[in-house]
Amino acid sequence: MPLLEPNYYGWWIGKQTAKGTPNLTPTYRPIMVAGDFNIARDDGDENYSDLTKYGARTDWVNSLLGNAEPGCEATPAELAYLLWLFHGGETVTAEASVVGPPVVPAMSRHRFTPSTTLGHPFTSFLRVGSSVIRRHQFNDCYITRLAIESSSANKATRVTPRILSLDPAAIYAADPAASLPTDRPFLFTDASQVGGAAAATIDGSITIDGVTFRGITQFNVTIDDAWEPIYGDAATPFDFVQGQPVVNVASTVFFNTDGHARFNSLVYGTPTPATGAKPIRSAVAANGSFKATLRQRDSASAHSGRELVIDVPAVKWNVPDAPGPNPDGGVTELALAGTMRPPTGGAQPYTIDVKTAAAVAAFTV
């Protein structure tokens, strides 16, 4: 008898017109590289005596919830679509092509800022296997948390949504028709600087507290809107309640001159502390910032027009541990982690821009 082949799989998603109305023709098929959809069922019971040694029990289902954290390659349109489902809205601007040099194709810019409401409900179809096939349809899905991460170790930028399904694991018969994306994902190296003519149009960058870092190995921005399911008179949830939303930022940089200056700023309040300076003991250092700009380029360094810009203008950084001595030598790094703080002056707490092909207009389905 054959076994289920886990290396054959697909995930399809499509916005629902309303909660309780599944989308049977999903629009997108993200490139899923990690994670799974789970059927979380909690059972309850109570025992009573039936005058035998082991007694008897009454059993029931306490709760049933679908949950998933699928890690996906951040291809432009699919990343924008997931962000749209999460935020429940977007602002789309058509940007004309630039003759150059360098030449920049026409683009569609999808901008996302914090939302005060739960995002769009959507349907997920998950298929695993080839000769033995598992097919599950998860209805009434909502994204409650979303992380975007990229690193020098795994160059493909990844988006990982936390998904809760109020109506999980229905069996379906045939896979949807939506195909895999043809665009490549944003890469960690799309943040590098190539210089040359009109470099500002081509170059990407990662800036921390306004300083551009070349010696950086990873970043992660996690937006957690803290929506949690609530249960009424059924085993499945009937609604969501919001806890305390938070935006966390993390990055790892080399402890070179720039890294040393950032450490000193956090500990002493200045990048160049004087002899005899002591760590801050009352008011903490001023808020910093984080911004990642990833601009796709082809093999000839021509701009593809696809861009990802994540901007968190006010970050309260935690004080990291300084690198310690190591008799074997090697790379020294500084692990930075912080939390978004509401900025002053009416600025958005964060802005995410995804520039896609011009044909990817404002999402509706």
What's the short version?
By secondary structure, this protein is mostly beta strands.
Explained architecture:
The chain is mostly beta strands and 365 residues long. It contains three helices and 20 strands. Strand 8 (122-128) and strand 9 (134-151) form a beta hairpin. The longest helix is centred in the N-terminal third of the chain and has 12 residues, at 76-87. It is globular and about 80 Å long.
What is the distance, rounded to the nearest whole angstrom, between the alpha carbons of the first and last residues? 41 Å
Please give the number of β-strands: 20
Rough shape?
globular
Question: What is the CA-atom radius of gyration, in angstroms?
Answer: 24 Å
Query: How many domain regions?
Result: 1
Low-confidence segments: none
Strand content: 35-45%
Can you write the helix and strand succession as a string?
EEEEEHEEEEEHEEEEEEHEEEE
Mean pLDDT: 94
The major β-sheet equals: 18 strands, antiparallel
Q: In which range does the helix fraction lie?
A: under 10%
Number of helices: 3
Please describe the topology of this protein.
Layout: E1 9-15, E2 32-34, E3 37-48, E4 56-68, E5 71-73, H1 76-87, E6 91-95, E7 107-112, E8 122-128, E9 134-151, E10 158-171, H2 199-202, E11 205-208, E12 211-212, E13 216-224, E14 227-230, E15 239-242, E16 246-254, H3 257-268, E17 288-297, E18 303-317, E19 333-340, E20 351-357
Antiparallel strand pairs: 1-8, 2-5, 3-4, 4-10, 5-10, 6-7, 7-20, 8-9, 9-10, 9-13, 11-12, 11-17, 13-16, 14-15, 16-19, 17-18, 18-19, 18-20
